[in-house]
């Protein structure tokens, strides 16, 4: 989401066994007997205590609750087309039994080990509500109970209250993981299950899209299982073809080498930009057409590691990893590498120094939030005049090889995003102050890290140690780089199916998406479900805006117009997927670029390398460069419907809720509305408010940059702009100074400027979702029933608990540091606690005392898109 939700979320390793440890325990629910204790008694406050008992303990009045088994079986792989199949995760199909004990007592009972939440508060404990024991509500309760730590006071640390037990058991199983990972593992299991019956050779009963998807996924799994894939020789041939040889192995680079031709070829065939990056998206000032954008490349490690002195040790680590990678490759292509050891060491240092130069020339993330400054259109002739030392013709000819009349197309307009960086790049070729051997060694190094997962296991181990993320995933999609990953998710060993689906979903997004959505039998009903909530949330946000004293009537009308013109993508692209019986459209979409995958699979199903090369080139052509010849489409989903996330595209003024977001633990059709509004409603609100964060307000109702001066764009007048800036600065300051976690060596706080868009979306979106939920309850005329074994929590409290649960995350220290340095999302603990601190209804619902950490004084709160 852009999570994300935002939500983008995505930072962490799938570990579907996260909750298994806790649900193995038996839950004991002790309730005061109705006949002796009156629930309306002002001194009565029911409480739940959780106790572990032996499996064979006899109980009175025992009922059962099903808790999800989050263990995931490792996928096995096929040895021939359509013979054996991966074993899908058992997350959906198996449950473990948890017992709830109802014990009758003759006097009020309160466990001494369970901390009560302000027992005397009438808001916290107005009555003992009736529970709904339906399977879906039991399942929802089991998820929340597996994470809650009732020894923590929610008014002091709400994240710890909702997530401590999740984190405890996640750490026990190792790695980094989140509830998002759990949901994605569920979706992955459904995809694997659906692929099992697909016959790759049967083109009558199965779509090309399904057959290609199975071939790609199964080939990846088979390659990992065989563990003998090593394409060093093939990569050596590519290097020889492009560069003539390897400088760090004492080969002289030809003075006449055309590095821009090679840059274009590497970007197209390996989805690997090196010295600059190109992509196609909506023309921000002519939204009927697409444009080619040029930008600086994404760095291998965080920019701060290169430019700040306190991270010198990180740069030394980078040098060591480069040296090991070059040495390992040399050992794979030479019998004796000893004569070249010093050359390799020197090359590694030069490459790292060159990466540092690129970092210094690059714009930091805080400067890449102003899109007026990043919209610099050029005709191709003018581009050549402005940057004459860059061979644009050669670069574009090799990059756009599949685009008809490519030179004519780009001659009309190219948009340069960071002109000062392109100027620096021009200067290093004009002045020859960087050796060509250094540039070639740099490009080869990037190639080796990109290909490491599909070379030998030794290469993969180095990529894991380097926390290397494939470039297409690291860059993200669209103007605002939606979905970009800053940390490596999978190692390919503990979770082969997760890694393979992640790869295929990146380079062929609609393949797994089609397979997944088709497999869901009640998809049409489910996709209707969130539409009512969405409309209520939109209306709530509009009411919030009307309370703003700093917004003028003129700006308010423009804001309302932007909401009215919002494109809402639900579930899957209807025109592309059709009725799932006639697959003409979806197959036509995939045939040209991805169709050859089937032949490659039949030729050698255990060799994924030629298949991933087909997918990468298909991705660049189908999902990017060929779009330049097509009109812009505001309904473009951009990413896979099988991705557990959601996103807002400012250049299209659209929100997208892929079908996968409606999966457990976040969603069930029968879940309480409190949970639906909290998690998915909060997601809708989050993405909606992205249209009104510091980036979104630069774009108008149809997605175009609007009201642009020489240095900024936006639809707000002066008074409104001042009020918005004050609001945004409050958020920036708040997240920068209230640091969490507190002990991380050189890094202590999130970057409030970099994360402000996500923080504004969190605060405004969750408040809109809460108001929509309270509106829904008023429409119904009554509260919902309580969750079983959590009856002491009101529906409004469950709303907040579900929100906190959705962000439960266990991270390694290194992952957390990297997130703080590079991610547009603040750490989960920050974003959860800060949101509830700034929304006073939370403190009221939990009966917190004014001045407690989660219920600060009004003047200490940031009021985001609301006037009170």
UniProtKB/TrEMBL annotation:
Cofactor: Zn(2+)
PROSITE patterns attached to this UniProt entry: NEPRILYSIN
Biological-process GO terms, alphabetical: protein processing
Gene3D superfamilies linked to this entry: Collagenase (Catalytic Domain) (3.40.390.10), Neutral endopeptidase , domain2 (1.10.1380.10)
Residues of the Peptidase M13 C-terminal domain: 645-862
Pfam families, A to Z: Peptidase_M13, Peptidase_M13_N
Superkingdom of source: Eukaryota
Domain Peptidase M13 N-terminal: start-end pairs: 154-573
GO molecular function, one term: metalloendopeptidase activity
UniProt-listed InterPro entries: MetalloPept_cat_dom_sf, Peptidase_M13, Peptidase_M13_C, Peptidase_M13_dom_2, Peptidase_M13_N
Annotated region described as Disordered, given as residue ranges: 60-95
UniProt KW keywords: Hydrolase, Membrane, Metal-binding, Metalloprotease, Protease, Transmembrane, Transmembrane helix, Zinc
Low complexity bias (residue ranges): 66-90
Gene Ontology cellular component annotations, sorted alphabetically: plasma membrane
Protein's name according to its UniProt entry: Peptidase family M13
Source lineage: Eukaryota, Metazoa, Ecdysozoa, Nematoda, Chromadorea
